[in-house]
Give the backbone structure.
Amino acid sequence: MTNDAGSPPPTPERDVILRFEDVHKAFGAQRVLRGLSFDVQRGKVLGIMGGSGTGKSVALRHVIGLLQPDAGRVEVEGRNVPDLSAGELSDLRKRMGYVFQEGALINWLTVEENLALPLVENTDLGRGEIADRVAEKLAMVHIPDAGKKLPSEISGGMKKRVGLARALIVEPDILLYDEPNAGLDPEISRSINELMREIAESHESTALVVEHRVDCIRTVCDEVVFLHEGEAIVHQPTEEFLRPSHPRLIEFLGPDALT
Amino acid sequence: MTPPDHLLAASPGWLADALPFAFAAGLVYVLLQAAWFRATVVEMGSTLELAAATALRLHHLPRRSRWLMEQLFAAGVRNLHVVLLVGLFMGMIVSLQTGIELSRFGQQDQIGTIVAASMTREMGPFITSVVLAATTGSALAAELGTMSVSDELSALEVMSVDRTSFLVVPRVAALMIIAPVLTVLCDTIGIVGGGFVASSQLGVPLAQYTETALDALQEKGALIPVPMDVYSGLFKSIIFGGLIAIISCASGLVARGGALGVGRATSRAVRDSIIAVIVANYFLTWFLYR
């Protein structure tokens, strides 16, 4: 892995909340992760970039226990996620928010019901409190009037916002974004990026952002990891990352993307 | 499969005793080498696991009453006309077929007995189950399959929402409630249809048909004071409803691979549900009428 001058080498004093340590994952004959290692500091937003099929989303799914590594460790706050019991994993998930690529909203629930679902299922909050929190989060993502609509009645950009609001409703310590800009036009994409930045600053939560758009990385992330063939070959602060020296990264970003 | 007689006769006693087991073990071993058989065993295992998980969560039903009502509406009201139409014609067919044969022996006055007994014991529960498997079962598999391939099930998992309690319990309960209701309606319309054919085409007076039909349903059950044939049919339909819902939900929940995977899950749900209903029907009939 390249750590140029000014890069963030892991040191013991850093408050590491999330760590990948030599993680391997294969699906049949296809080896997706081949010794992936990186750390994320508490309160930082880390971007994960890389070409298609390099294992970005697969890595993200390991953090929340949707996938188990074939080898290696995926640690959240020092605890190896695959070793957690069902109850411990459930508790960990209640402190995380996951924004899916296509929103993954339950299609027969209204936007409000989608947001309220984790609170109704996992907390003792009353209806009034839940309604207040839903309204607050919908306002935060700038769609205060969408509550009564079904997912099929809203646009792709709005679905992303609802997905984001649903992830935020549990006030998570760690937010995981899986390609939040996929399929969006540049204007909506910009507004989503600004929203993610706002959330990062106001909630002081740690976030992992799987993304391949430079404008999102530039706006949202503090640091970036670049994956190539299932390994992290670059891990740098965003400013340095966008002045690449690694030949594969230069090839990936291209000259136009950096302007 | 048993070994040939000449082989058994020529073997020492212990070997003769062991041979059937060896054959059975060999057969299982050969079958386990086949990918389709392994896949079937795994599929059956996951369906049984889901059935057990659902049974353990049935007490969550009061929390799911809204989804239960929606599923009851979807399975009941939307299938009602199909069940009535199929039931009506099935009663007419049974009446016509048996009536033609019975009239050769001058026994056509017994048509009511045969139509009533066959509709309540077998045809009503079976027809209702086939309609439910083809309509509601396929819809359940397609709905849950679409949720699976569009990450909605993963979303439930990361929100720590128990998908068995949230998705499967209300669907299974709804089919177990609605199947006997539809079966009663199917039985009734089938017997009415049979009466129409008997009186209009076979020359049996309607009053006589009605009397013989009601006579056939006189035998009361020991535990429940309703006609034995009716409650055995209703008991069957409750079991069939549960089987269809569990198999369809299990097929949907494991769907992978986009629209193609959803299509496969849907057709597998209908096929397996109908097979399960037929197999269960034999054992239930044996249990209830032995």
User: Anything to note?
Assistant: The two ends of chain B are 26 Å apart (CA to CA). Chain B has a mean pLDDT of 89. Chain B has one domain: 62-289. Residues 199 and 207 of chain B are 9 Å apart (CA to CA).
